[in-house]
Amino acid sequence: MADTELLDATFAALADPTRRAILARLAAGEATVTELAAPFAMSQPAISKHLRVLERAGLVSRGRDAQRRPCRLEARPLRDATAWLANYRDYWVESYQRLDVLLDELQSVDHTGTERRPARPNGTGG
Amino acid sequence: MADTELLDATFAALADPTRRAILARLAAGEATVTELAAPFAMSQPAISKHLRVLERAGLVSRGRDAQRRPCRLEARPLRDATAWLANYRDYWVESYQRLDVLLDELQSVDHTGTERRPARPNGTGG
DNA sequence: GCCACCTATAACCTCCTGGTTCTATAACCA
DNA sequence: TGGTTATAGAACCAGGAGGTTATAGGTGGC
User: Fold this and answer.
1) Which residues form the HTH arsR-type domain (chains A, B) (predicted)?
2) Which residues have CB under 8 Å from B67's CB, separation 6+?
């Protein structure tokens, strides 16, 4: 998938509150489809569709545990999206020189899938 | 507009390469609709529609200069989107303690529309 | 007043999205 | 073998997105 298309898919995936909530849930650890569907007033196939969107964007990967297909957060696209947004940081950040350093670091980091630390997402809102 | 809906609108607006290119162009300064439309193999009404999407998301504001309606980048939603993404930074950043400091700063900054510095966006891609 | 220019609106098309229900598949359990 | 659970797929629907062309509206120039 081209760079641009990946960004398209990532931002499109993030544009839905259900999907953002799913990502927030997954940040706390792996979960099955049923577990992910539980909080929503929505059918299971609807959740499966959302997961397929997230998977297409590379935001989620699936494992196999008997009948279960546990979902895992893959944050690399989130990093790419953040990197894109960072191009506009000068518009809203005062002390942006430290940000420059940071972003340079950020763009050289490439260790997706390793060394998971507890994150602290805060749901669908800001 | 609710917080969640704003994020919805922002991410949805960013999910289109034409719109990302428009934002990149606007980062270099104000531009009229005709100017914005020029680089695209697309009709003027199509661009007007894209601008309406960007405007609904708060990413663009319009002025008035005779018949022209110059567009200006409004980066606050970009900041909000970045702040949301930052919740997941622990998944892809090594030295994230500096990021903590940074993001705290970031969230307390609130000076949209003031003190514009030259930015350096890099187009639609990464 | 009239024309040219810039932009927005209207009407229309196609395709995608997000939801539904029903059903199929696959794995475990008894 | 048959039943139960977990998930995916198919068919369907309504609505929205992104594009088109044609046209209307506001503004300045002559």
Assistant:
1) 1-93
2) none
Residue of B18, B25, B73, B87 for testing the chain A interface, max A β-carbons within 10 Å: B87
Taking the C-alpha atoms of residue A21 and residue B7, their distance in angstroms, rounded to an integer, is 12
Residue nearest to nucleotide D22 (CA to C1'): B45
- pLDDT tens, A24-68? 999 999 999 999 999 999 999 999 999 999 999 999 999 988 889
Residue type, A98: R
If one counts every other C-beta atom within 10 angstroms of the C-beta of residue A42, the result is 12
User: What is residue B113's three-state secondary structure?
Assistant: coil
The three-class DSSP label of residue A60 is: strand
Q: Mind listing the domains of chain B with CATH numbers?
A: 3-73 (1.10.10.10), 76-108 (no CATH)
